[in-house]
Amino acid sequence: MSNKTPFSPNISTIASAIQPFHVMKILAEAKILEASGKEVIHMEIGEPDFASLPCVHQAANEAAEQGLTHYTPTMGLPALREKLADFYGDFYQANVSQNNIMITPGSSTALQLVLTALLNPGDKVMLADPAYPCNRQFVNLLHGELLAIPVSHETQYQLNLDLLKANWQAGIKVVMVASPANPTGTIIEQNELLAMAEFLAEQNAYFIVDEIYQGLVYERPAESILGNVNLPENVIVINSFSKFFGMTGWRLGWCVLPEHLISVMDRLGQNLFLAAPTPSQYGALRVLEQDALQALEARRAIFEQRRNALINAMQQASFTPKLIPQGAFYLYWDVSEYTDNSEQFCADLLQQTGVAITPGRDFGDYQAKQHVRLAYTTDIEKLTLAVQKISGFIHQNADFETVKSNLPGLVGFDIQGII
Amino acid sequence: MSNKTPFSPNISTIASAIQPFHVMKILAEAKILEASGKEVIHMEIGEPDFASLPCVHQAANEAAEQGLTHYTPTMGLPALREKLADFYGDFYQANVSQNNIMITPGSSTALQLVLTALLNPGDKVMLADPAYPCNRQFVNLLHGELLAIPVSHETQYQLNLDLLKANWQAGIKVVMVASPANPTGTIIEQNELLAMAEFLAEQNAYFIVDEIYQGLVYERPAESILGNVNLPENVIVINSFSKFFGMTGWRLGWCVLPEHLISVMDRLGQNLFLAAPTPSQYGALRVLEQDALQALEARRAIFEQRRNALINAMQQASFTPKLIPQGAFYLYWDVSEYTDNSEQFCADLLQQTGVAITPGRDFGDYQAKQHVRLAYTTDIEKLTLAVQKISGFIHQNADFETVKSNLPGLVGFDIQGII
């Protein structure tokens, strides 16, 4: 018998309410299937299948061999901040000073710090539904108030100036967008972003632009809101070495701050995380070199081929996604023809076919039960096979046999561009 | 002229109030001095001067060469959690399950997550003054209420059961201690820790025990509160690979959680940081091997020699620290004989002698102006020279010429043990 002093758990209200990623349940079930010998096609994972480039760990290792394993300054390795400033100049014709760049341990930390720097309890934060799930949690943890604006394929699942104006109300301190976005892969055009930034500055609200998938765009040049001249001082850009740069496990991101936020972000960083990982920062310094960027461009092209192959396979199977992703590596697919419960749909699909995809519920509430996210982070052969399996699954399940007529056609996608 | 839409900065109240580390000012001034050609002895830095062991970056690099650069699970690499559980068994006779161990990107994140999991706005957190400065900020950010209990050399600058009882009041949700502590290097004995844990469980309060400096102890065995059997379910242990393990720049820590906090911490981690750095986790796996631990023990012995040399030099100079640090690499020194403004004392000392130390203000309010922290994170020759310089500085400044008689003697220190 235990002689422990009894104790009643007493978790905070906010932490108790935090939702897990529902995709984790899919992942766990997929692992059980794999352990039983069944093959699983992983289209649920928001991570490139490529490992980081060899030059990354070589550079990290060389730095460590020279004894460079101590803390860096909280704002980041000066050489890396300088190199990123150059990167903005070279690739986006953006005039960014290294002083305004803060290196963070992943973009999650950047998002958390920025919202901490801005939000008082009760301040309202407007974002799109669907969107990256963690943003909602950051706002909840800071006792902010969420204004999740339902968006559909009609606005490319994005906020725009009209939606800002139509939904504007007192107390909105921050608007958050992502371009390209997770889970939809859609982009907000530069003129629209600038118009939104200016409207928000007039309202004295901040504009957080998540460019985490920057660089992973197809049939168009990569862009940054920072390429605009005369950007008002309310714009904060979040970015990451995880996606285009393929350095997920190295946990490194950055943000670009207006002048008045530098000092407060430095102080928050000193207290909340001290410094980003040093080996990762030396690795990132290397990944911004020309030869590495070329290797990453080749990987981008592979993602584009996969996207095209996925869309092509879906069309072959008479599926009609309403929108073609312009970037990232996701397709957000309206499956309302086949189910009114996309979570059950994903669970059944996995059990019956071994294809793992993510239910819409992870990204919000609006039409979440009608959507699923397909990640094209695996090779073309598997993607094609997966679509065939999904097709077979749908045809075998009688309750999905609904009439598929008069469906809206593809939007924003040049059909000739698909192999 | 700029055509920017005007914007008025609007930072959150809590972020505005966050203090920088005042030692940063000392560090910045030290760098200016160094740039002007003056030699600086750095005793302000809370970081081992040693780089991480070569086996750490070798192991990280080998893992990366095998393509192991993706995200790990949020709770951490299973092999590392298992190895840490073994470590607790081998070194502390502690029965810790790997399921209760969560790997975090530095112990800062562990502390932040744990407090997020526990605190509702208005919940009270009791801690010692002086203490590690970030803890106060974490509580402020969560809108908790701080109960900073003044502690002096009479209780080894630590909370104890008597102080808990004497200062108890309704609404205390958490008590935080560190053993060994920063900035004092003092330890809370095991029987005291257990008694505190049991008292707190009776009050239905949590007990966060920071063991970040665990292993860096002198003339006594390293211990963990987890070595106690029948520990109540209110105890949370925070630890780090930064100090004893010397992996500062790799940003890796962990916490040991009671069963009922595992799920909520996993969910918080999924949202707030995703996963700790993968290369760092492979490095940490290697640093827990026997040969690496032996190399770290040799480094511990060097810190012990430095401590002894520092104390010895201070006694030679007729300084009488009231307390000898039992662990970590800090001496918290009462300089009230020489100044009533330790911040000015540190600034003047640096300018006149090139010796950089940290003012008490970074660690709290109580007698902060009477204390400075000396870090023995540099070699013995420099430490000895620094004390001579401090002595010269004090004798040259007339206003410090006060009578030094009837001072309390050394506490808890075997004078014979000093070389």
From TrEMBL, chains A, B:
Lineage, opening ranks: Bacteria, Pseudomonadati, Pseudomonadota, Gammaproteobacteria, Thiotrichales
Xref: CDD domains: AAT_like
PROSITE patterns: AA_TRANSFER_CLASS_1
All copies of domain Aminotransferase class I/classII large, residue ranges: 39-390
Family label: Belongs to the class-I pyridoxal-phosphate-dependent aminotransferase family.
GO molecular function terms attached to this record: transaminase activity
Keywords carried by this UniProt record: Aminotransferase, Pyridoxal phosphate, Transferase
Cofactor list: pyridoxal 5'-phosphate
Pfam families assigned: Aminotran_1_2 (PF00155)
EC number of this enzyme: 2.6.1.-
Keyword Transferase among UniProt keywords: yes
UniProt cross-references to Gene3D superfamilies, sorted A to Z: Type I PLP-dependent aspartate aminotransferase-like (Major domain)
Protein name: Aminotransferase
EC class of the enzyme, as a word: transferase
